[in-house]
Every structure is written in C-alpha cells, then in structure tokens.
Design goal:
Structural class: alpha/beta
Strand order of the largest sheet: 4-10-9-8-7-5-6
Shape: globular
Bound molecules: pyridoxal-5'-phosphate
Strand content: 5-15%
Helix content: 25-40%
Order of helices and strands: HEEEHHHEHEHEEHEHEEHHHEEHEEEH
Radius of gyration: 22 Å
Distance between the termini: 33 Å
C-alpha cells in the first residue's frame, strides 16, 4: 500500500518543489485542471497593475515605444521558443490557437496546390477540424479531410496528401504521438505538417527542430499559465517563412505598418504572422507567467509529470480497481501530462469532486480528465485527490441529482 507519508517524503526530494511558491493556489483546493486553465502566477497581478496604471494610465500612447508594447508579440514568442525546440525568430505570440490554425492551414495548402487531402485524427480537438472545414469554404478548394484513428495515421500518408495536421497530446485521452517519426514519414511523401501543441507546451519537452516540423500552434492559457483567453502562439519553420504569407494580411503583419502605404508588403520575418494590434494586457500577463520557466529543465518537468501520473494510476489500481477504465496509455512514451478515466457518471463524479475541492474536468461523452502539472502539484496532492475520488465512489455521492445538471463550460 502506498501511504500518505511516502508521498510527503517524495515531495521533500522533488527538485521542482520550490516553484509552487510562485503560484496563487487557493487553500483547500487540489488543482488538476491546469491543462485547461493554468493557475495564477504571483507575478501576474503586479505586472498587470503596472501595465494598466503606469504604462497605460500615465504613459498613454507613448508606451508603444517607450516600454516596447509593440515588440511584445516577438518578445513573448522568443520566451516560448526554447520550450518547444524552436529558434526565437520562428515563434510569435498572437491571436487564438484556432486563428493560428487557420493561418497554418492556408499557408501549408498554398505550398501544395496540386494535392487533394488533409489528414488528421478522428479524435482531434474539434476546433482543429472545424478550422479545416472553414478553410475549405474560404479557399473554395476541393480537398478531402481524411480522419484516421491514431494507429492508422502512418498508413494514410500517401502522396496526394498536402498536410498532416495533428495534436501531439490528445486532449481527451492524453495519448502522446511520436512527432519526430510522424513528421519524418510525412516528409518522405512530400507532406507538410502542422502540430498543435496545446497540451504539450510547458508540460513536456517538445523539439520542433529535431522533428523538422513545418508549422505549429499552441495555447497560452494551459500549461503556460497566461490567464483566461491568453494569446496563443504560431511557429513557422525558418526555411518556410519567406515562402509563406498569412492569409490574414492585417497592418501589423506589414513590413512597415506606420508607412501607411496602400499595398500590402509582408514583414520579412515572423512578424508577418501578426494581423491586428497586439493585445497588450493579455501579452503582458503571459510574458510575466513565462518567467516561471526560466532555468526550469523541461526534462525534469517530464520526469515529475510521469511520476505523478504513475502514482495516480497506481493509487487507482490499489483503491478503485474496476471502478474506472483508464484511457490514458500506460506506456510512458505514449503518455502526455494527464490521466483520463471513463465512467458513465463522469460528469456527476467531476462535480462531486469539485465540491470537495478537487478540480478536474469532464469531456463528453464520458471522460473525467485530470491534468498533472509538475510546476505546482505535489505527490501528496495526488494522494489526497485519490482519497477524494474513493470517498465519492464509496458514498455514491455523485448520484445526488444536482450534480447531473450540466453547466455551459464543463
Ligand atoms: C485548448 C485547445 C485549443 C483551443 O483553441 P482556442 O482557439 O484557444 O480556443 C485548440 N486545440 C487544442 C488541441 C486544444 O486542446
């Protein structure tokens, strides 16, 4: 039997244990939903206060130059770059993940005009698939969206395919793809790749350079802790930048926005992925949040994340055998930074847990999802969370009718 003291002991040995101090974590809460909305870093309110009261309130429009608001998208992109194995000039923070997917899809398709298909995964996050539909209508181009099961992707890489668009870590199951291998297989057939790193960035080491990935996108508000609706990022491999133009040719992507010329001329660098005026307050929050990663080794983050998910699954096996199906792969090479369980009463169980201060989330139709973020979770939190799950299952408190009422956001 694993006991609580073992977990406390492991926390004492954890090389990342001090980082937790940099977050606001409400007492009595075990937060297992940082894969959906990261918690508040302590540095953020201070920074926002400064941006709003001083930079905006006093500096007014001068702050675009005087404190470098205008460079924030690149500055934040450069902070994200080392987390995803990219060069600083390949990443920029802007817009939402969905909008950045739109740009990537248009750019990739324009590089393969004669090809007739986009391959993705059946279980991909819906917005990724919705954006393909929108791009098809927008371009008026005849191509097929081929949706495969995770294991059949390689077999679908034929030479009529323009783009392989995948999410590295599946949002529901937490299955991790081998980005390097799949990119290599795609390239062997002349297929370009778009990787969605929503559940990878800040959660595990990502190496876009080693994979030779072409395009990528990711979220600022999940494991990067940038706050609700934080700006997303877009990566375009350096070699492709001069050959590609964003379909959203707004003035901030122009080579010289303040020349106010009539004709559009894209910026020579990654700034061509910008569209309109940068969201300064959101970018500032994300900028401050990213400082937590300074000096943090992503391989240490990964080691701890796998240890947390191993512990989670071992405790489930000990205490709750047969209650749930674990849908997250047991093989660490195929596991992201979450544990997902299946249960017909999934939604109500998650609500009952939230009432006990254990916050996970639910993904329809029947998945309970627990995100495991190494920067602020302790081993003892996992122990206590499983104690909570055991209590809810034993008492059957999830059968209380009010837990079955669905809120708008699950
Ligand atoms: C969270 C998530 C998104 C979110 O996209 P937004 O445009 O920020 O709403 C996109 N793709 C995946 C795989 C996600 O997990």
């Amino acid at each position: 039997m694993i006991c609580r003291n073992d977990c406390i002991h492991r926390d004492g040995q954890d090389p990342l244990r001090e980082i937790r101090q940099q977050f606001v974590l409400p007492p009595g809460i075990i937060y297992l939903d940082g894969n959906s909305l990261g918690p508040l870093p302590k540095a953020v309110p201070e920074r926002i206060e400064q941006v709003v009261r001083q930079e905006w309130g006093v500096g007014l429009i001068r702050s675009w130059n005087s404190v470098g608001w205008v460079d924030l998208p690149q500055k934040v992109g450069a902070k994200i770059a080392p987390l995803i194995g990219a060069q600083a000039n390949e990443v920029i923070a802007a817009d939402s993940t969905s909008i950045n997917l739109f740009k990537c899809l248009c750019m990739a398709l324009s590089l393969r005009p004669e090809r007739k298909a986009v391959v993705s995964e059946q279980s991909n996050f819906p917005t990724d698939l919705y954006m393909v539909e929108g791009v098809r209508q927008f371009l008026g181009r005849d191509f097929e969206l081929r949706l495969m099961d995770g294991d059949q992707i390689e077999a679908a890489l034929s030479d009529d395919v323009a783009v392989l668009m995948l999410t590295e870590v599946d949002f529901k199951t937490g299955r991790l793809h081998d980005m390097r291998r799949l990119t290599e297989k795609a390239h062997a057939k002349g297929i370009l790749t778009i990787w969605d790193l929503a559940h990878s960035t800040g959660a595990l080491p990502v190496d876009l350079a080693a994979a030779e990935a072409d395009f990528a996108v990711g979220c600022g508000y999940k494991y990067l802790n940038g706050g609700p609706g934080a700006p997303a990022f877009i990566f375009v491999k350096a070699e492709l930048q001069s050959q590609t133009r964003s379909p959203l040719t707004g003035w901030f992507g122009h080579a010289n926005p303040f020349d106010f010329t009539t004709a559009y001329k894209p910026a020579p660098d990654i700034r061509r992925q910008l569209c309109g005026t940068p969201a300064v307050i959101g970018l500032s929050a994300l900028d401050a949040a990213l400082d937590i990663f300074n000096g943090v080794s992503m391989s240490m983050v990964r080691t701890k994340s796998l240890a947390l998910s191993d512990l989670f699954m071992a405790l489930l096996a000990e205490r709750l055998e047969n209650e749930f199906d674990i849908v997250t792969p047991q093989d660490p090479a195929q596991r992201g930074s979450q544990v997902s369980l299946m249960h017909p009463h999934g939604y109500a169980i998650v609500q009952a847990l939230i009432e006990r201060g254990i916050i996970g989330d639910f993904r329809a139709p029947n998945i309970l999802r627990f995100g495991l973020a190494s920067l602020y979770l302790r081993f003892v939190d996992i122990f206590d969370a499983i104690e909570g799950v055991s209590a809810v299952m034993k008492e059957r408190s999830y059968l209380t009718p009010r837990y079955a009422m669905r809120a708008a956001v699950t």
